[in-house]
Amino acid sequence: MTLLAVERIKLFTTRSPWWCMVLALGLSIGFTAIIAANSTEGAMPVVASAFTHQFGLMVIMVMAALAITTEYRFGTIKATFQAVPDRISPLVAKGVVVALLSAVVGLLVGFGSWGLSWLIVSDRSQLALESANDWRHVLGVSLVFAAGSLLALGVGTLVRQTAGAVSIILVFALLVENLVTLIPKIGDDIQKWLPFTVANKFVLGEADSSGLPEGAGPPVPGELSPWGSLAYFTAIALAFFVVSLVVAKRRDA
Amino acid sequence: MIEATGLTKHYGTTVAVDDLSFTVQAGRVTGFLGPNGAGKSTTMRMILGLDRPTRGKVLIDGKRYHELHRPLRTVGALLDAKWVHPNRSARAHLLWLARSNGIPARRVDEVLDLVGLTQVAKRRAGGFSLGMSQRLGIAGALLGDPRVLLFDEPVNGLDPEGIQWIRQFMHRLADQGRTVFVSSHLLSEMAQTAQELIVIGRGRLIAQTSTEQFIRDATEDAVRVRSPQLDRLRELLPGGARVTDGDGALLVHGLEPARIGELAALNGITLHELSPQRGSLEEAFIQLTKESVEYHAHE
């Protein structure tokens, strides 16, 4: 508990987490508002309010990476390891704090996007939260943010540099996962198993078809069920996080 | 007390610290002296468990660093005053450190007061001058009221007033019975600060002795001689003596003044000056560590 408080103090006494949280909320909810305002063809489905969560996810992962890379950049990681020499417990505490904070931001993004859509659209017939799938579109954002933040924290701990960690995360999530389909024949099959595509499937996948216009809806590829997709993404995130703990424990601070 | 035995650290093929053994006693200020790159900081990082020794071990009051419960209460260290997040306030920086080792927040205000930073406690540490950063670093080291204190080059870049303050501060800490281990690459600084010295070069131990003893051993005495018949005198000096020319005088090393006087009298040479000279500290230090300096300038 003490170490959770320590990591909380560390996170909230610098400015970048605040900026990242504001940016994550603003980008996701703001773009949803644009979608809602332009949703003139039929009723807006619940899943459409979740499309923009990826903006927030990218920003939250930057926040998570910064939480550890700035410690390396400014040497406070050495003070941390001096204070708690087992190294694992402060890093786990940081993971818990960052993941919880990301989950809260995800909750705000999910409900904020949905709520703002509710206020904006004229035809709310498809926007009520009725099915389990509807709830997943809204609440799932929170879970993906939490897992994504652990993944970013793991990458940040391994790379130790802000520029490197942020580039790796953004280039992979935004470019590699989309461009991989350019590989002939196997590209599509590879994409189906890449982490952010799978995470997307969890939030957006298997939307209730009744709410979707004919032939519309996000083309989310994937072999797993939505909840299977979450398990897959979380497992990858945890794997990165655990490997980063082992490496941080072994190498010189 | 700090005890290092056979401490060795390799970085790839570079040997930073080589089979280093020494003891730092409580109640004294012990200087850790060596040229830049001698392995002082690496050794200090190993003491604090930040770097893993390739071989050997170092114990603090009989325990390895990671065996200490709430280590900030046993060991306080200032390795780099810049190890602070620039956007965090001085108080917030100390607060998370204190919290991590179960130190009450009241103690944060105490140490801020102790180092004279109460006025600027809420300001962001990134805006601090070097002197203020050093004070904040010292405040951090003192948080847990530790028995053992480590300072790495604490006076680097400080103004004379700051140097004076740190020096007196370290003496006060040692007088309270604490172990104070402070590194420097300047012998003149250590001569005024430390009572004991551990001297290293290229990661190896050169000497562990009292500062007084070290200076006595290291500074070679010389005798300054002036005479109208300097050239004749030079020829008469025995082969074992080393002679260097000083403006219109000779500097004779390795020969007692009395012996030179007798030689002169015996040969009817007039002496205008015969004065023993104390060798300079820095010169002695350079002599001693010459072989172990990592980077030489081309002469």
Q: What order do the SSEs of chain A take from the amino end to the carboxyl end, as H and E? A: HHHHHHHHHH
Low-confidence segments of chain A: none
The DSSP helix count of chain A reads 10
The average pLDDT value of chain B, as a whole number, equals: 89
Tell me the number of helical segments of chain B per DSSP (H or I, 4 or more residues long): 10
Q: CATH first level of the largest domain in chain B: which class? A: Alpha Beta
Tell me the radius of gyration of chain A. 19 Å
Q: Structural class from helices and strands of chain A?
A: mainly alpha
Helical fraction of chain B equals 25-40%
Order of helices and strands of chain B: EEEHEEHHHEHEHEEHEHEEHEH
Helices and strands in order:
The complex is a heterodimer of chains A (253) and B (299).
Chain A: H1 2-12, H2 16-37, H3 53-73, H4 76-83, H5 88-120, H6 132-159, H7 162-179, H8 187-191, H9 195-204, H10 226-250
Chain B: E1 2-11, E2 14-24, E3 29-33, H1 40-47, E4 55-60, E5 75-78, H2 90-100, H3 105-114, H4 130-142, E6 148-152, H5 160-175, E7 179-184, H6 187-193, E8 196-201, E9 204-210, H7 211-218, E10 222-226, H8 230-236, E11 242-246, E12 249-253, H9 257-266, E13 273-277, H10 281-289
Parallel strand pairs in B: 3-7, 3-8, 5-6, 6-7
Antiparallel strand pairs in B: 1-2, 1-4, 8-9, 10-12, 10-13, 11-12
Helix pairs in contact in B: 2-3, 3-4
Structure description:
The complex is a heterodimer of chains A (253) and B (299). Chain A has 253 residues and is mainly α. Chain A has helices at residues 2-12, 16-37, 53-73, 76-83, 88-120, 132-159, 162-179, 187-191, 195-204, 226-250. Chain A is globular. In chain A, 51% of the residues are buried. Chain B has 2 domains: 2-217, P-loop containing nucleotide triphosphate hydrolases (Rossmann fold, 3-Layer(aba) Sandwich); 220-277, Alpha-Beta Plaits (2-Layer Sandwich), CATH 3.30.70. Chain B contains 10 helices and 13 strands. The relative contact order of chain B is 0.15. The chains are: A mainly alpha (253), B alpha/beta (299). At the A-B interface, α1 and α4 of A face α2 of B.
